[in-house]
């Protein structure tokens, strides 16, 4: 991979880069000819570009998931950066061509995250919750450290799901320190499992789409069912207060029925989990958008925040 | 039980009746003295009344679930009928004192309903759905024929849940006859299970309240979990298309996220089930309200229908 | 008309077909040249396609309502099928060129529908409603059997209005069988007239648009006025309870003020009519969308159902 | 009628007054005894009061519509003035006992209003609209000058409907002077008829309630039907642009579907009529509420203005 | 400036006109080449057009704010008029090239408006309000007579802000004549200042955009702060009732919190100001849209009026 | 003050306590006699009770703000605890009668809070923000440490405003540690000032009501004005980016226009401040409600949390 990455180039600069094709849609232009709308990515970010007058051969070769060598120029199109594709070919075996190397990562390594998750589980002192959390997590452990937290918007990078989970627990610690009446075990247990259903709801870390289970059941209920299954394995009563509380933490974590929770939070810890989940997702969405904005300007509108755009101050680091 | 029933008396008439106490709340009047706010019922309906200046002994004796002998007068209080309690004592063992005899029933007997349900199951020709439906239903079969369909509002009588289920299936048949593209097995299977979770959500047919599972999980998810459990027993894959479709029928049957479904209907049969469920519940609520209204007047406002009141025409049967 | 119809061809197949031009908009491409955006139809359905670099002569010839002979290829454009127009000319007099032959029809013939409508009227036993219904229907009888039920969305085929009416009455029968307190005459009378105003609101069965009366008054009030007029003719008192009830059935049938009803349903039969109307329209919209979808995929989003898309199961007929 | 009127007395003052009973509801107190909740009025305003321990004879004598002689004291009850009834008897024939004398009136006499309405009609220069307006108005002319504009809230005094109409036309003149593109005839014609249906919707000027036509049809559609009827009489085409425009003015004047208009304003004049109607009603509601408030305090909450209360400044006239 | 103006030409007519470039966005076409999307204007209105295949030199020359000589043809593109640019060059010094001459103006000259504003201030008889209004107005007096009332939509012409202010005061006079309880000084004072913050919120009369203060603070609070500042200068107590009332007039004038007022109107005069503000803005938006519509057709949809389109009657002046 | 406090007694226990009268409303009972509705408080909480048949002398003596000696019994009235007043007299000078001793306090002492606030200010490294924060805070410093954070609901104890502020800053630290792109100085500065306007909006710590400035301007704008005033004093440009950012933090902190912010958050730090403000207020409201609830039951409904009630688990400390 080149040292200078995709997002480092300025508008009008020309580059030669190995990039991952994250998407490749065949379309027909208004003049009747076909072109491929491509999404190029490396770990610095992603940009779109079109391959005009695409041949059948192009269409078969340039599909999502392939690594390609691109000569291109960064351009502005209706206010957004895109790539003008000047030359394009598939990477060969002697060149960088492992898709995993071109995917964006979060600020922590997998092993750092594993260590912190392990410590959090240790702090769940209630033995039933501790065992259920470990059993449910174990069923999806590999995907938990690989998946993004969402198809787009927030924590949309590999490992984003685990990092989002850790961020919520760190905030939860401060909240529990301020409010000793909060049940720390319950809050941590809920935080660890709350979004785990996304490993079933989403197809995978690279060409992320919704599965049929995701569309017809949804990640919230999918985790709840896992808890019920694990209860059967561990011979815990799923109707005990402890298990009802834990399931409620998951079921209620979207906060409002309109957002897909079948019940609203009815215990303190469930409301706190919901609030911290929203807080962390919002910050991540705003940070991504503002980072890509010139100081003194407003960012693009963020769909997940009611279409608001956010201002990047000029004073910057000076404060 | 007297031949003339509670709802047959007119305002200002005096009666002596054996009645069930459905509710008994101890309150303090503005003059500082205690009274008991009582809800009296027989199979014709229910009315409230107060026992003024209640002694400790009264408070201990007159509790919900007891059958009492009442001498009372029907009165109007702010537009509603209520009972002015003139004398009150508990029924003794030689008198009618079985609460079950004082509860309202629907238009079909239990055995008629059992027969029709059995026939419906027979028409679910898909063998997996057929087995799942029978297994889930079997787990709650007794309560299915005893429970009301709701705490109040619609089908709030013993057996209301089963009768509501049957009504939906009858409508579903007409719909499926009109639209041959509808999957009849799926629609019937969803209809049979859709509200079964109410047997877990509600405490019972007489002093109906919400259980903790009802409050924290809700009847929709409770049935979904039962299906997942039954799949494990029967060694069916819960992630097969067939099982996802059936679970979706249940999860989506409230139609809107705001009404507690974690997903909106995404298959034709799920939307139809939702629409028929609403239709049948609305008709039941309106019919109850209009029945208690004098021709030429508007009924009381119905909470479950946006607070609307409904007019009972004078022309009556003549049409 | 060719035996293989427009919707039978697969993507990339080439065909020669006589087709009706349902729409023809002249537009300017981004390169400054004119093209015509055409909508082609036969009784199997409709597809769009562009005639590029259109001459003045083309623009004058290819207008909505004409039958043309097309050589074309079915293509995918942004997920939707469209026609790549390879050759195009008007049909001549010795060829199929009657627009009426290229319009989609519902599942019943006009004479079957007439017979069923006639039977329904017979079952309106109240003599005043019976006479009013017949008189109002008579004023628009021809259009009633020709018009679609809506400009697009549901029952958007010739005869759709009458077929939608019949479907509602069939459902109404099942409802009335279940609930003997429903006034069957009133429900049928309301069902027969409820959408008749669409024959005034819409311009016609082929190039359907809204009339000025449709835009400024709306089909709901237009029928109500017809009833008032007919009352004058028949010397019925429009303020009698019977006529108020019938008018209310029409005025309230959209259910909510937001949907254009000036009053919400205040009688049982009006609420039922509204619910059945919505049910039948929804099923029709979903059925159309799902029919055009490959098994295992989600349909296009349906505007009239909150933009939801619907899944077409793979298990198909097997159930 | 006494010179000092009901609203002139201060809290704790005792008075002897002839007053109209606007309402008389028999209720049962918490101690089981009956009382009558009375609404007393003269032309200065109205106040409530209770007659405790009411006998059968009292209940038969003191009914709505009667004039009574009251000895009472003004009291505060939960922040509102009310009357403590010390003595009560019916007025006899030699005393003031004409209910019409005890009803509040607006700032103009009937003959002043007749003159102004007559002048407005004169300014409707379009002959068709002029004739229709006169014909429709003539059908309800007596009630037009007697009725309130609403059951409660705004212009709830005798003659309020005509005065509200005149106020709107005066505002309309200023608007039309500012905007010469407005069709003055159409705006005046719409203003004159817009609320006339209230003479059918409401039972009368004294014990105002909704009629069945009011509940099932609503005053908006009731006027539209009158226009259609008058068109038939005058042999005007109800589907001509002129008549569609006039009917649209009426149908759209509530502005939003949610407020009962079956169509939203689609012509400039209809939007203006709606805005002026709301403006005048709001001012009237606020003025009434503020008038009854002590300077330096907030008024009661006004239901028709989203429950807001309004501040009465201390600086008062000084400005 | 040519005698025949931009908006006078018909579709397909060719013209040579000096026009102001109100906007100039560089974009890339689907064929990969750059073009400039231009907005041309003179005092009769504005139209868009594209300069295809734009060179670097074109991009540098044709920027917003320049006057150009255009040879063009009026065309229809998707129902809207636009300009097909046939030739384009900058105006030279001997030709009309003052941007101010190409801007639309309202119906009053600046000096007429100054005179009327001066008279209105004279009628604010409360001396404190009179002085505050004059002081605040003086700070922005030049911009007050130059600015539009909004970026687009209503009164979007030079001087629109002052004309909108005057229109509101004229309506306010009629209202105050009808309702003598209204504090005329307060209503006029609020009307004069209500939108003055737009001179800070918007960048200027020609290439109008939002300033940072506009985005982060908003014009409502910006005026309130000016009043507080002026109070300090004049040694008035900002917490006196008089100053609180005046500030409340400004803060509440958007009527609803959703529309950006931090408080809802809590005094009569504030509600009236809000209503008149909305009324005047609506009429202006509708008038502009209808003026550009052919009689017998509906206008474009107006964003600020919920996307409604408005009908322009054919009967026109005849009424 | 007695060692056992008001909230320590159980239902039916009789006590003799010195208590503060937080409220005293004179009302008339349904039997026509006056009573005083009293709110009694000590630092453990507050309860209501009625003094029946109150004399003029009682009404004059027992007013809000007085300390009284009460003999009373704790009772249940419609599910809530209240006091049955058995005897009541004013405390004399030799008895505890300082109202300040009977007010509830938060978990930190004033001096602990002062120290922490001082440290936070020290961490605002931007010198302009640092000076503005100190100057604005200084103007209201005494009230800042005495006031509750709200009239009721959250942090409704003396010192609640300062404690709420500190809680937010502690959460802000964790957030800023997780997200290094956040401007810590700006977030702390905004947090310190965000609710300071409540010292102007509310009348005081004991008989808390809204001031006229509170009602007509609101606490959000009141702080913004203070910043503008302080800028003038310190000769800072209020339109500099730094000051616009700080003012925006305050103006936007309610998050939504519907909640009274005149602008929505448009910078990252403003959104975070809003989210933390809501989070802390919610937790405080839930904690108060749950604390007063028996384990295994649901709390009272919390108005500020959409009327939800919260469950207090039985498992309690064991976790």
Automatic annotation (TrEMBL), chains A, B, C, D, E, F:
The entry's keywords: Hydrolase
Coiled coil: none
InterPro entries xrefs: HD/PDEase_dom, HD_domain, YhaM_exoribonuc/phosphodiest
CDD domains tied to this protein: HDc, YhaM_OBF_like
Domain HD, first and last residues per copy: 164-282
Name of the protein in question: 3'-5' exoribonuclease YhaM
Organism: Furfurilactobacillus curtus
């Amino acid at each position: 991979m080149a040292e200078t990455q995709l997002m480092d180039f300025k508008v009008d600069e020309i580059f030669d880069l190995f990039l991952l094709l994250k998407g490749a849609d065949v379309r027909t232009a208004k003049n009747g000819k076909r072109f491929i709308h491509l999404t190029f990515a490396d770990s610095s970010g992603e940009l779109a570009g079109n391959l005009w007058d695409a041949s059948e051969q192009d269409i078969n070769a340039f599909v999502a998931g392939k690594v390609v060598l691109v000569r291109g120029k960064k351009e502005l199109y209706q206010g957004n950066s895109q790539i003008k594709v000047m030359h394009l070919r598939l990477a060969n075996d002697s060149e960088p061509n492992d898709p995993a190397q071109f995917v964006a990562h979060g600020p922590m390594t997998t092993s750092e995250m594993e260590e912190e998750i392990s410590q959090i589980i240790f702090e769940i002192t209630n033995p039933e919750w501790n065992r259920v959390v470990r059993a449910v997590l174990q069923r999806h452990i590999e995907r938990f450290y690989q998946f993004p937290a969402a198809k787009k918007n927030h924590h949309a990078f590999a490992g984003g799901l685990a990092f989002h989970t850790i961020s919520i627990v760190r905030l939860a610690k401060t909240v529990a320190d301020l409010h000793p009446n909060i049940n720390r075990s319950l809050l941590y247990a809920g935080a660890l499992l709350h979004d785990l259903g996304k490993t079933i709801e989403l197809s995978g870390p690279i060409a992320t789409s919704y599965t049929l289970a995701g569309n017809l059941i949804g990640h919230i209920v999918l985790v709840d069912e896992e808890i019920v299954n694990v209860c059967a394995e561990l011979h815990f009563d799923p109707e005990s207060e402890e298990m009802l509380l834990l399931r409620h933490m998951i079921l209620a974590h979207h906060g409002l029925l309109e957002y897909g929770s079948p019940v609203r939070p009815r215990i303190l810890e469930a409301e706190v989990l919901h609030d911290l989940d929203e807080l962390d997702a919002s910050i991540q969405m705003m940070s991504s958008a503002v980072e890509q904005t010139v100081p003194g300007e407003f960012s693009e509108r963020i769909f997940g925040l009611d279409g608001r755009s956010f201002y990047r101050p000029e004073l910057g680091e000076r404060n």
